[in-house]
Amino acid sequence: MRIYNGYGGVGGNRKLWGDEHEITMVENNPEIAAIYQDFYPNDRVIVGDAHQHLLEWYAIYDIIWMSPPCPTHSQIRYNIGFKANRKYSKVSAVYPDLGLYQEVILLDKWFEGLWVVENTIPYYDPLIAGAKIGGHIWWSNFPIPDFNHGNRNHRGGTVESLQKRKGIDLSKYDIHEKRKILRNCVEPETGLHVLNAAIGYTQPVQEGLFAK
Predict the structure, then answer these.
(1) Which of 43-47, 152-156, 181-185 is predicted with the least confidence, judged by mean pLDDT?
(2) pLDDT over 70 for what percent of the chain?
(3) d(Cα 27, Cα 95) in Å, to the nearest integer?
(4) What pLDDT, on a 0 to 100 scale, did the predictor assign at position 75?
(5) pLDDT band per the 50, 70, 90 thresholds, residue 12
(6) For tag attachment on the chain, is the N or C end more exposed, with fewer CB atoms within 10 Å?
(7) Closest among 168, 173, 185, 182 to 31, alpha carbons compared
(8) Directed axis angle between helix 50-57 and helix 99-110, to 10°?
């Protein structure tokens, strides 16, 4: 299977996929992309804009996974950084990055393979309805069974606890914001669960974003 892993980070979602697939990962941070390449030397790693790469190359893949940046949609940023009564400076307002919905629409209307877009559950009502499963929101053209991945430990997690939780060791890498990088990782068991759902899905996709 030719898999496109957009905004792949250090590869949390990809960790349990094995090496039987032809995987292309696009990440705009060269330091993070280098760590991914170190972890997965058989994958093709492109340093660049995953949003633009998707538009230009979507048709060559069998499965597409997109995990676009989530901070502008984040409940934590909005509820704790803005709404909470805090003594220190609150975060500034930002426009939600609507590239998320551009990707959902592009894949839903143009792509003939299997696809999934993953993000944080937003602080607002999603502009396109998605499935809230396992602490994430998902848009896809195949059914993703519900699952429970346990405590993600994102709010109080340290670098050490998040490394243990996700099975990703960044200790040898001289890179800033390790905690943020680890928090951005999809849990490996979640990545495998979703890939297995895609590969095991053989029935025709119903009309619309989600098979029922």
Answers:
(1) 152-156
(2) 88
(3) 22
(4) 80
(5) very high
(6) C
(7) 173
(8) 20
Distance CA 175, CA 67 (A): 21
**What are the tokens at 74?**
């984040």
Contact 117, 136 (CB under 8 A): no
**Helix, strand or coil, per DSSP, at residue 171:** coil
Give Cβ neighbours of residue 198 (< 8 Å, ≥ 6 apart). 63, 114, 116, 140, 142
Helix (H, G, I), strand (E, B) or coil at 138: strand
Please name which of 127, 122, 118 lies closest in space to residue 198, comparing C-alpha atoms: 118
Tokens of 73: 């949609």
Q: Kindly report each contact of residues 32-36 with a partner whose C-beta sits within 8 Å and lies 24 or more positions away, as own/partner.
A: 32/175, 32/181, 35/10, 35/170, 35/173, 35/175, 36/8, 36/9, 36/10, 36/11
* Gap between the Cα atoms of 123 and 73, Å rounded: 6
Confidence at residue 64, expressed as pLDDT on a 0 to 100 scale: 98
Question: What are the tens digits of pLDDT across the range 93-121?
Answer: 889 999 999 999 999 999 999 999 999 89
CATH topology of domain 2-199: Rossmann fold (3.40.50)
Please report, for the chain, the start and end positions of each structural domain, with discontinuous segments joined by +. Answer: 2-199
Distance (Å, rounded) from C-alpha 114 to C-alpha 195? 10
